[in-house]
Amino acid sequence: MPIEVLLVEDSPGDVRLTQEAFRDANKSIHLHVASDGVEAMSFLKHEGDHAHAPRPDLILLDLNLPKMDGREVLAHIKEDDSLKTIPTVILTTSAAEADIVKSYELQANCYLTKPVQLEAFEGLVKSINDFWLTKVKLPQQR
Amino acid sequence: MKDMRERRNGTQVLLVEDSPGDVRLTLETFRDTNCAVHLHVVADGMEAMSFLRREGTNVGAPRPDLILLDLNLPKMDGRQVLALIKEDNGLKTIPTVILTTSAAEADIVRSYQLQANCYLCKPVDLEVFENLVKSINDFWLSEAKLPAQN
Prior knowledge:
heterodimer; A: alpha/beta; Rossmann fold; globular
């Protein structure tokens, strides 16, 4: 069974790094990428081009995004009875206390900051895989 | 900068667990893994809420940085404790990790509905249990950013 992960990220460099690190860490991951908040919501709601999008097992969500910002996406996910059970991990460059607190208030499952150093970034992706996609029990699809 | 693990002495973890064997294992593994962790133990759901609300003998209790919560507990059950934590504006930002023997899909889904931050099953094998506690330490107390103490 493949593991479906939705990465909501507008930086092409970070998208590529995350794709490569997951490919090295775990072959059974299907990483789907949405580059703004509106596209993320349309993926999750199977709208338009995303009519056949799978339900993600895990969402990795950046905070600063074009069109609809990550805080708003997070609020929509956690207000929706069907989507709220999908673990949503914030993955952002912001280490601001206000962003950390606000994200946990909105019921982010966890908050991680992107390291600037390449090797540390790969290490973080690997620990997301080892913890969230290996140790943690996720709800089954549907 | 504002990293609480530099700002304060130690990381406060509240373990809500009624099995003395599991308490002891968790205590020992944290002691071996991270000496900065102060593990506070309460054995039922009522005591957990009283610790978090600093009631009665818990008046001087610290605010936990992380809560490890069993589901099946005496007096008040873990699902009810979780619901109370996540309904409380003062407490909801504390990451709450379910740590239980139940692998029932209904318990997993219910816990995420109640906004548990993550759900882990207690392994029966001793070594695997120790590894899980180490992963909790490595992920939640090293990689994850937690809200600072207020």
